[in-house]
Write a structure and sequence with these properties.
Layout (H helix, E strand, L loop, with lengths): L1 E6 L3 E6 L2 E6 L2 E2 L14 E5 L2 E5 L1 H6 L15 H14 L4 E10 L1 H15 L1 E7 L5 E12 L2 H8 L15 E7 L4 E7 L2 E2 L5 E3 L3 H15 L8 H10 L1 E4 L2 E4 L1 H23 L8 E5 L3 H11 L3 E3 L6 H14 L2
Parallel strand pairs: 1-7, 7-9, 10-16, 16-17
Antiparallel strand pairs: 1-2, 2-3, 4-6, 5-6, 5-8, 8-9, 10-11, 11-12, 11-13, 14-15
């Protein structure tokens, strides 16, 4: 089985064929509900790293600040529990052998790719509550820079075959806007250009921090909202306090404009005059929903991929199929 895996700071995504796992990158020790009608939605995974509740239910029961947002993210029990939760969404097999392609932010790639590959390779045993235990063997693991997933999603089809050979002759730019990072990738002839390829650590979560500070001052009762809940409110431009609607349009609009301009300015700085020669500027990642229109205005050749939050995982899966077929 071939799998593409994108363990982001905001959401965990995995793709294999027509099976997709997608849930919030949040894991906490579970506290059992006295009564719940949503038991089928609960993901509790037990493994050598502990017993953790993952995804949306973890956000509801978690505490502010529990989300990890550090370079050591891949070393945490939460990361591995979310990885196991994603595998359990992709397959219920008690035993299986997998070929995996995973991604790392550009800023972390050189430092962490060997560590992540070694951590993912081998036999993984875990139990998702309500199911039989699983023993899955990662036979091959390839770690690539995260933004490359968008290029691979365009280059390859669902069986890993090259369907856009013209991309091998074109210069492309990729803006992969995630929760904690923004990846600026410049590709020419399917090779990255190191001098025009960089990663920064100011993504969509900075918007969350600004909105949290505003809410804490104006509505102290909302100070302990989980980061994922604030992100949902940012997208909706509203939240609720004591039964009354809180309009977030102004505060969100200001910070989005500020960071969006920073993303455009940084891309212009890294890519320089080369930006004008790019056939396409590809935008992916969850931040595409927040800044896609602004980037289109700055770079007329911009395309925002469909389901941009899944683009990397889809590209990784297709690359896994390509590697398996060689």
């Amino acid at each position: 089985m071939n799998i593409g895996y994108d363990g982001g700071f905001y959401a965990t995504k995995a793709v294999s064929g027509d099976r997709i796992a997608q849930f919030e990158s949040f894991a906490v020790r579970p506290s059992e509900s006295l009564f719940s009608l949503n038991g089928h939605q609960t993901i509790i995974v037990s493994s050598q790293v502990g017993r953790l509740l993952c995804g949306a239910e973890a956000v509801k029961k978690g505490v502010t600040g529990a989300r990890k947002e550090t370079a050591g993210w891949i070393d945490t029990p939460e990361y591995m529990s979310l990885f196991y939760a994603a595998l359990s969404e992709i397959t219920e097999a008690t035993q299986a052998t997998l070929n995996l392609v995973a991604g790392l932010p550009l800023a972390d790639f050189q430092r962490d790719r060997a560590k992540l590959r070694d951590r993912l390779l081998g036999v993984h045993q875990f139990v998702r509550e309500g199911r039989r235990g699983q023993s899955l063997t990662i036979e091959t693991a390839r770690v690539v820079p995260q933004a490359w997933g968008a290029v691979l999603a365009l280059l390859l089809d669902e069986r890993g075959r090259i369907v856009r050979p013209e991309l091998a002759k074109q210069k492309l730019g990729v803006l992969d806007i995630g929760g904690h990072t923004v990846n600026y990738l410049s590709v020419n002839g399917l090779s990255d250009i190191p001098s025009e390829t960089q990663g920064t650590e100011r993504g969509a979560w900075h918007v969350v921090r600004v909105v949290r500070n505003w809410l804490t001052g104006a509505y102290p009762g909302l100070a302990r909202l989980a980061d994922h809940d604030i992100m949902a409110a940012i997208i909706a431009r509203e939240t609720w306090h004591q039964g009354e609607r809180v309009d977030l349009a102004l505060v969100v609009g200001e910070v989005l404009a500020d960071i969006g301009q920073e993303i455009v300015d940084t891309a212009t700085q890294y890519w320089g005059a080369g930006a004008a020669t790019m056939r396409q500027v590809i935008v992916c990642g969850g931040g595409a929903y927040l800044w896609g229109d602004m980037i289109r205005r700055a770079f007329r050749q911009t395309i925002v991929l469909d389901a941009p939050e899944l683009a990397n995982a889809i590209g990784f899966y297709r690359f896994a199929c390509n590697l398996a077929g060689r």
